[in-house]
Design a protein that fits this description.
The two termini are 30 Å apart. The strands form 10 sheets. The protein has a 5-stranded mixed β-sheet, sandwiched between helices. Strands 24-19-12-26-25 form a 5-stranded mixed β-sheet. Strands 3-4-6-5 form a 4-stranded mixed β-sheet, sandwiched between helices. A hairpin with a 2-residue loop joins strand 13 and strand 14. It is an alpha+beta fold.
């Protein structure tokens, strides 16, 4: 029970506080309605710590009003996160605050002394992780914890991590702040004592989506793992391309994921790039009653209108030049575009991705026209428009910073479309080439839905294509196309947390095959032998089920679970070693815990154990033969040994 509730009850017990006064205090404690905020004044009584103020998106006077309300109610120390220096100065003129610029965090009021319960170690993979780590460290200190900071100890230089073994082994809790692969958390989770009585292996991850800061603090308590070793949640961006994809639609969907402040910042950043004659505008639009964003790119004040069927400039304006130019309008080659992108004030990673997307388009056009890539040219006006779409999408992909990008199968539309070269089938030849190896379908809309720019962006950024993975969706964005159809013409972007696939960390999903056959005229010895052979041949599991078959004869169903690659081989084994006339098979998906073997030191010597973990579940099972040996030698029960472990 926390101290505030304890003091109140103690006052009732000693007679200092009457029952009615205590009841009144509890009734009036819950919150203070300030109009713009309902301040939770009962948080300390319920959870032992005051409410934390999220400063971003609030005005300085609003933050000050909340702080004043909390302090008047005896709540504190007050923590304000995501606070810029200007707002901190405003608060500093009114309250005793300590502002930490690196963490963008302020504390109002004196911090409590460490409770003495232990030490939290906060480790970072690199220097760039320090702002997130400092926010965690200062929050922990404000809650009365002793903190040990281990910064820039990433596993790329493992000696830096190993130099702090004593700190890690003595920690009560560990927070690892690192990148998407989770390597630092995995190594620390392996080095620290997994059977310590109060050990917590924690992974804190952050990605910024405008004001939406998401942090994941994973905790292991005695007897229960929660994926401390590489099984962290992934931020996954899923692109729903049920109505195809164009460059401006993808960019608009990503932009629509952001909050209002971040949208304004992103649009300002894009216009500050200085793409010649180009201006970005974001308009609210609706399709079939769904509100979203339409990206409007103007070149010299004129918006490049899509050609018939919704084509983008990258295709309608691309063609081969053989020998001297016979056109009267200006053109740009791939090399010209790459130089133009390189000259923009972009982060190197964004510029590299944008150039790679254009290289895909140029290579596809080269194959279609049967000409070298250096002879593929783009009309200058169309080039500016397409560069703007590609750069905007690349910038926003990096700004969002998802760990993984997945896209649905792409609806390319159907029919034909007229362009500068004549009437072409849908998808257009260049688009079809870019989408090779990516699942596509025609759908029912008689129009071109996927453009070369959209196809190239998907092919470059998406790591896989298929149905939406299991994920907790945090934000949804809609990028609207220009044309009107009976179905909402948009790309939908979903951003959220995904459990990694099997093999990427503890627990996940996998595809398996179930083989089975019914047997009523074979001996138990033959069936048992076949089951043993299936396991020896690599079946994940094999088992039998008693059956009542035709004419009420007792029978046996022999079943085996295996990897899809082993299906035919194990089916042949079933047919060869049993009397069955046929083997059924069906594909199955399953949730599986990750498994590993290890050894635990005990007072009776080392004991082999098998650990399985994932999906918030952990089991540690002792190797039976060794446990039985110890039990006999020391007069113990198996329960005694298992309880120790």
């Amino acid at each position: 029970m926390n101290s505030e509730a304890r003091r109140l009850l103690e006052g009732v017990r000693t007679g200092v506080v009457s029952v009615d006064d205590a009841l009144l205090k509890l009734k009036t404690a819950p919150f203070d309605d300030l109009g713009y905020a309902k301040v939770d004044l009962h948080r300390t009584a319920r959870q032992g710590a005051a409410e934390v103020i999220f400063g971003e998106g609030k005005t300085a006077p609003q933050i000050a009003g909340i702080v004043e309300s909390m302090r008047a109610a005896g709540q504190g120390p007050v923590i304000v996160t995501r606070l810029d220096a200007e707002k901190a100065a405003y608060l500093g003129a009114r309250f005793p605050i300590a502002y930490h610029e690196t963490a963008r965090l302020a504390t109002v009021g004196a911090l409590p002394a460490p409770s003495g319960a232990g030490t939290i170690v906060i480790a970072t993979g690199g220097t760039s992780d320090i702002p997130v780590a400092e926010e965690a460290a200062l929050t922990a200190e404000a809650l009365g914890n002793a903190v040990e900071r281990l910064y820039d100890v990433g596993v790329a230089g493992i000696h830096r991590t190993l130099a702090h073994m004593d700190d890690l082994m003595q920690a009560t809790a560990i927070v690892a702040v690192a990148g998407m692969e989770g390597a630092l958390a995995s190594v620390i989770g392996g080095l620290a004592d997994p059977f310590g009585p109060a050990f917590y292996a924690q992974l804190l991850r952050e990605r910024r989506v405008g004001r939406q800061h998401r942090q994941w603090l994973r905790r292991r308590i005695p007897g229960q793992y929660d994926q401390p070793c590489g099984g962290s949640l992934m931020t996954t961006l899923y692109l729903d391309c049920g109505m195809g994809a164009a460059g401006d639609m993808i960019g608009a969907a990503l932009y629509d994921l952001l909050d209002d402040d971040a949208r304004a910042d992103a649009l300002r950043a894009l216009n500050d790039l200085g793409i010649p004659q180009v201006r970005f505008e974001a308009e609210r639009a609706a399709k079939c009653g769904i509100a979203g964003t339409h990206f409007r790119v103007t070149v010299d004040g004129v918006e490049e209108a899509p050609a018939d069927g919704g084509l983008d400039p990258a295709r309608t304006r691309a063609h081969a030049h053989g020998g001297a130019s016979h056109h009267h309008h200006a053109h740009r080659s791939l090399a010209d575009i790459e130089r133009a992108i390189a000259d923009l004030p972009l982060p190197q990673a964004v510029a590299s991705d944008a150039s790679a997307v254009f290289a895909r388009i140029a290579q596809a056009e080269s194959t279609v026209h049967g000409a070298p890539v250096d002879q593929i040219h783009f009309h200058e006006v169309g080039t500016f428009d397409a560069v703007a779409d590609v750069v905007a999408a690349s910038y926003l992909f990096h700004h969002i910073g998802a760990d993984r990008i997945v896209a649905s199968p792409v609806n390319v539309g159907r029919g034909t479309v007229r362009c500068a070269h004549g009437i072409l089938p849908v998808p257009a030849p260049a688009t079809a080439l870019i989408l090779r190896g990516i699942p596509t379908y025609a759908g029912t809309v008689a129009s071109e839905l996927c453009t070369p720019t959209g196809a190239a962006l998907l092919a470059h950024f998406a790591s896989s294509f298929g149905p939406q993975p299991p994920m907790t969706v945090m934000r949804i964005g809609y990028g609207m196309g220009a044309k009107e159809f009976a179905q909402a013409n948009c790309v939908r972007a979903l951003l959220g947390d995904e459990v990694p696939d099997f093999g990427a960390g503890p627990g996940g999903t996998e595809e398996i095959v179930e083989l089975s056959c019914n047997i009523d005229d074979d001996t138990p010895e033959h069936i048992a032998f076949a089951l043993e052979l299936l396991l020896e041949a690599g079946a994940r599991d094999a088992f039998t089920v008693p059956l009542t078959m035709k004419k009420s004869r007792p029978g046996t169903m022999l079943c085996a679970l295996c990897a899809p690659a082993d299906r035919d081989r194990l089916a042949r084994l079933m047919l060869r070693h049993t009397a069955t006339l046929g083997v059924r098979w069906k594909p199955c998906g399953r949730y599986a815990l990750a498994r590993e073997e290890g050894t635990v030191d005990t007072p009776w010597g080392p004991v082999p154990v098998k650990r399985s973990s994932g999906f918030g579940v952990t089991r540690v099972k002792v190797e039976h033969d060794r446990a039985a040996e110890i039990a006999r030698a020391h007069g113990l029960t198996l329960n005694d040994i298992e309880a120790f472990l």
